């Protein structure tokens, strides 16, 4: 039971039940760059569209649409809440740290850097659920790539092989 | 007739339960093996093993007799007219693919049709899609009702002059529905359409008689029947097997080979190229012996008792919705919970040592039909008891509290 509590911490349950920033984003009309990318985990049915509004080197806004389990919903909701308004370079650091925390057994995560995202640390003990937590972050990776270059975000991602 | 003491005795036949507290409700994915199956395989590998159909030495003769003996057991188990109608495959999936490639493909022209139903496992969908792509034939799908049963009127109306084969499950792996396969086979035959029945989920739960069903082909997997993985069987009417070309070439399926041409062995050898899963066949034979030792009346009574016990428990949980409410059900319940995703259900139950399956059960069209991404499926086997289902019920109630749903 205590392992379950580590997985489903109160913050996770709260975001799972009441996701923040869950709505579509219209195309930008004010000179910012708006893009979205899709993510699927076909085996479990997780489905995601992640939207970002980028101006210069700042991601001004993030939102999502999609359905999935509590871990997936909370991870996506908290991603949008925590990263909104931050610089791309800063986001990249958090992204790396988050994926490192969930996918590598080597390094202890730096909870300071991750802030409240560190609540997902318990997911590592449930290997079958890691893909639920990482899906929005893999989608974010695609968006960041498109911010760097001229490519448009679009190719869907899946984390089912994680 | 069956009391709790007998059921507990069955549980002790399965070593997996000896050293852990496990409520195993995932037999529809793969069943646990009784000691007699494990022992038979170990004994065979240790003392009777050699390649079959080749050596004139004693060990090879013993191994051949064990392998062919297992074939005879499968034949009797399915009620086949002769064991020569039984072909060993890797499982039900390979058996469907064999029929798709060797029976269906040569008979399909552009515009011809294959009829399946909406409740099929992917293994009874994708092989037909592949041969349709290769031949220009069309895959037709008979709809299912809100209860999760095949709409028989629609099924009948889809059997047309271009239908070359009808393929459907005996028992749905995602809903638990028992299809009226004898009736469906008669409907197809009335239109001159041959029939394949996917029996993967049926064989552990009901006695099967292929001659009574009247089907042309019947397939199943050993690992759902308390046997090993990597072994299964195709039953095919002799007249079909004789007419069908081989689908894989190799050793053991020939009479003679020259570079000018090859003469094939008669069935079943024609369809068993290469060294087969000899030990797996022996294990499957032992599993069939085990089931027949328990007897069908006792097995079906046990399963009906578990279902009758489980159904009101599940229905009594507020916010639980059964997916599929068939008149005849065999061995499993699929359900969703308000406000709790099936994967969270699965993880919660796992933490309580209850093994269920969460997902689409390789039946995505069924999930789509009922408008859910996935379900939680609890399925029973010989080793389950009423207490297992009570444990599931209690855990689901605790889960609702945990997730505040």
Description:
The complex is a heterodimer of chains A (162) and B (405). Chain A has 162 residues and is α+β, with helices and mostly antiparallel strands. Chain A has a single domain (2-148), classed as Sufe protein. Chain: A. In chain A, 41% of the residues lie in helices and 18% in strands. In chain A, strands 1-2-3 form a 3-stranded antiparallel sheet, covered by helices on one side. In chain A, a hairpin with a 2-residue loop joins β2 (46-55) and β3. Chain B is built from 14 helices and 15 strands. Chain B is globular. A 7-stranded mixed sheet of chain B has the order 2-8-7-6-5-3-4, sandwiched between helices. Helices cover 40% and strands 16% of the residues of chain B. Chain B folds into 2 domains: 4-34 and 295-402, Alpha-Beta Complex (Aspartate Aminotransferase, domain 1); 38-292, Aspartate Aminotransferase, domain 2 (3-Layer(aba) Sandwich). Chain B has helices at 4-12, 35-47, 58-78, 92-104, 126-135, 152-158, 181-190, 210-213, 238-243, 278-294, 296-315, 342-351, 364-369, 386-402, and strands at residues 23-24, 86-89, 113-117, 138-142, 163-169, 195-198, 217-221, 232-236, 254-258, 261-264, 320-322, 332-337, 354-355, 357-359, 375-379. In chain B, α3 crosses α10 and α11 (296-315) packs parallel to α14 (386-402). The A-B interface holds A 1, 3-4, 7-8, 13, 17, 43-47, 67-72, 126, 128-129, 132 and B 339-344, 347-348, 351, 358-360, 367, 373-374, 402-404.
């Amino acid at each position: 039971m205590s392992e379950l509590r580590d997985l489903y911490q109160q913050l996770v349950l709260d975001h799972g039940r009441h996701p923040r920033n869950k709505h579509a984003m219209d195309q930008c009309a004010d000179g910012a760059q708006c893009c979205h990318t899709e993510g699927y985990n076909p085996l479990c049915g997780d489905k995601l569209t992640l939207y970002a509004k980028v101006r210069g080197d700042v991601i001004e806004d993030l939102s999502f649409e999609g359905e999935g389990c509590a871990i997936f919903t909370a991870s996506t909701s908290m991603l949008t809440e925590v990263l909104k308004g931050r610089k791309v370079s800063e986001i990249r650091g958090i992204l790396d740290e988050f994926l490192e925390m969930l996918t590598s057994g080597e390094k202890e995560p730096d909870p300071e850097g991750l802030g409240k995202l560190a609540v997902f640390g318990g997911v590592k003990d449930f290997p079958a659920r890691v893909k639920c937590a990482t899906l929005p972050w893999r989608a974010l990776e695609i968006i960041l790539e498109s911010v760097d270059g001229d490519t448009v975000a679009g190719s869907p991602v899946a984390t089912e092989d994680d | 007739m069956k009391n709790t003491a007998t059921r507990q005795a069955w549980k002790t036949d399965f070593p997996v339960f000896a050293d852990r507290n496990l409520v195993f409700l995932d037999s529809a994915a793969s069943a646990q093996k009784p000691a007699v199956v494990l022992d038979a395989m170990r004994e065979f590998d240790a003392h009777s093993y050699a390649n079959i159909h080749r050596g004139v030495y004693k060990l090879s003769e013993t191994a051949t007799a064990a392998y062919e003996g297992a074939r005879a057991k499968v034949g009797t188990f399915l009620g086949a007219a002769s064991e020569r109608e039984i072909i060993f495959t890797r499982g039900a999936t390979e058996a469907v693919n064999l029929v798709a490639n060797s029976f269906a493909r040569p008979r399909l022209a552009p515009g011809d049709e294959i009829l399946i139903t909406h409740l099929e496992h992917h293994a009874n969908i994708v092989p037909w899609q592949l041969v349709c792509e290769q031949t220009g034939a069309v895959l037709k799908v008979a709809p299912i009702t809100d209860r999760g049963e095949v709409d028989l009127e629609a099924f009948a109306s889809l059997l047309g002059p271009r239908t070359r084969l009808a393929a459907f499950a005996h028992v749905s792996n995602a809903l638990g529905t028992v299809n009226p396969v004898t009736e469906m086979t008669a409907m197809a035959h009335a239109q001159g359409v041959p029939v394949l029945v996917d029996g993967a989920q049926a064989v552990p739960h009901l006695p099967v008689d292929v001659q009574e069903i009247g089907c042309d082909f019947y397939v199943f997997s050993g690992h759902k029947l308390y046997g090993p993985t990597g072994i299964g069987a195709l039953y095919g009417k002799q007249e079909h097997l004789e007419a069908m070309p081989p689908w894989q070439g190799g050793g053991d399926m020939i009479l003679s080979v020259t570079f000018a041409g090859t003469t094939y062995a008669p069935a079943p050898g024609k369809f068993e190229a290469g060294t087969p899963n000899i030990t797996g066949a022996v294990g499957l034979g032992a599993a069939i012996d085990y089931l027949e030792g328990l007897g069908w009346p006792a097995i079906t009574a046990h399963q009906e008792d578990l279902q009758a016990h489980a159904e009101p428990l599940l229905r009594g949980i507020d916010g639980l919705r059964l997916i599929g409410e068939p008149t005849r059900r065999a061995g499993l319940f699929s359900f969703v919970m308000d406000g709790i995703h099936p994967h969270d259900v699965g993880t919660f139950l796992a933490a309580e040592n209850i093994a269920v399956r969460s997902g689409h059960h390789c039946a995505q069209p069924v999930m789509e039909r009922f408008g859910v991404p996935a379900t939680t499926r609890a399925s029973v086997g010989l080793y389950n008891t009423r207490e297992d289902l009570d444990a599931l019920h209690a855990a689901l109630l605790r889960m609702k509290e945990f997730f505040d749903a």
